[in-house]
Specification:
With 98 residues, this protein is mostly helical. It is built from 3 helices and no strands.
Length: 98
């Protein structure tokens, strides 16, 4: 094997970093009414979908439908729970702002 020639390394000037906070500014999360309405609307949609899939889970007779609607019920319920937690956080942020 032939050895590879390496080019000369050029020394770079190091730019001093003033402050790490300048590099990664943290934006504050604001609990606006628009965000709360969006979360509430999505929460209602996922709760309704979860209830519908639960009813279909109870009514279905074939195993494939039972498995599908049971899985859908669990997944939609978890998403609804996550949206409920987000709603609580937004309400707390809005209450702390006052």
């Amino acid at each position: 094997m032939a050895s590879k020639k390496r080019g000369k390394r050029i020394a770079r000037k190091k730019v001093p970093v003033k402050n790490k906070k300048d590099l990664h500014p943290i934006n504050r999360v604001r609990a606006t009414g628009r965000k709360i309405r969006l979360v509430v609307r999505n929460l209602v949609v996922f709760i309704l979908l979860s209830i519908i899939s639960y009813i279909l889970y109870l009514v279905s007779e074939k195993d494939i439908y039972i498995n599908f609607f049971g899985f859908a019920y669990v997944i939609l319920g978890v998403v609804a729970l996550a949206l409920f937690i987000v709603l609580l956080i937004l309400v707390l942020l809005k209450a702390m702002k006052r």
